[in-house]
């Protein structure tokens, strides 16, 4: 699939193909599927189903650039850790007040999503387990880096990052941080968008994520 476009029908199809690859791996310990919402939930559910592994939410939200919410200069993770891209912050000339406000907004969003998706349920632990971090793709890899660092705090036996698609730069970057990276569609072009790997693409709503989690709960995975 290297350098292919529209190689997956949708996130669910991508998850099934990812699950087929992961099913062939020998893992050091029992896996826990850590899906990064929203886009990582459909493939995460398919992997959890195939591996008969518990599913948990790995909520990570970017710290938004004040004048461009689509861009981020950091991330806040489900365990409250904050990761900031200091060189980018310097280049953007962000004030302390702007940084603090953006971090507070991201932190609040993480707390709201945890409450919405976990519903008060205690997430399965990853201590001495194989934590499989799943998203729908790797663009810059910065969100996944934050997820890896947060997962390390849970003392897993190993961390596997599994994504359907990713830029070569991001895959190489994350490969230095995780124990293993599985990426089915690596793209080497100068420009990259996760959506280009999918025939059908839209931003998942929180309601769609909740419906998927109901399916996972009915299957005993969540």
Distance between the termini: 31 Å
Physical arrangement of strands within the biggest beta sheet: 2-1-6-7-8
Cα Rg: 17 Å
Helix content: 25-40%
Overall mean pLDDT? 94
Outline the structure in words.
The structure is a single chain. The protein is of the alpha/beta class and 222 residues long. It is globular and about 50 Å long. The mean pLDDT is 94.
Topology:
Layout: H1 11-22, E1 31-35, H2 41-51, E2 55-57, E3 60-65, E4 68-77, E5 82-84, H3 86-92, H4 96-118, E6 130-134, H5 142-152, E7 158-167, H6 168-175, E8 180-187, H7 206-218
Parallel strand pairs: 1-2, 1-6, 6-7, 7-8
Antiparallel strand pairs: 3-4, 4-5
Helix pairs in contact: 1-2, 2-7
For this entry, give a set of tags.
globular; single chain; 3-stranded antiparallel β-sheet; alpha/beta; 5-stranded parallel β-sheet
What does this entry show, briefly?
With 222 residues, the protein is α/β, with parallel strands linked by helices. It is built from 7 helices and 8 strands, in the order αβαββββααβαβαβα.
């Amino acid at each position: 699939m290297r350098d292919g476009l529209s190689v997956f029908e949708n996130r669910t199809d991508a998850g099934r193909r990812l699950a087929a690859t992961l099913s062939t791996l020998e893992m050091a310990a029992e896996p826990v599927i850590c899906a990064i919402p929203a886009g990582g939930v459909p493939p995460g559910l398919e992997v959890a189903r195939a591996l008969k592994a518990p599913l948990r939410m790995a909520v990570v939200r970017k710290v938004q650039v004040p004048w461009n919410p689509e861009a981020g200069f950091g991330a806040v993770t489900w365990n409250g850790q904050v990761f900031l891209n200091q060189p980018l912050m310097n280049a953007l000339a962000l004030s302390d007040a702007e940084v603090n406000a953006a971090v507070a907004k991201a932190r609040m969003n993480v707390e709201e999503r945890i409450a919405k998706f976990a519903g008060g349920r205690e997430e399965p632990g990853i201590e001495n387990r194989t934590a499989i971090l799943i998203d729908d793709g790797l663009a810059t890899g910065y969100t996944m880096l934050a997820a890896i660092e947060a997962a390390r705090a849970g003392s897993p036996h190993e961390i596997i990052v599994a994504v359907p698609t990713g830029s070569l730069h991001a895959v190489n970057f994350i490969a230095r941080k995780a124990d293993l990276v599985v990426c089915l569609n690596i793209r080497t072009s100068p420009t990259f968008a996760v959506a280009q790997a999918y025939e059908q693409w839209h931003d998942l709503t929180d309601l769609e994520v909740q419906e998927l989690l109901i399916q996972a709960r009915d299957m005993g995975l969540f």
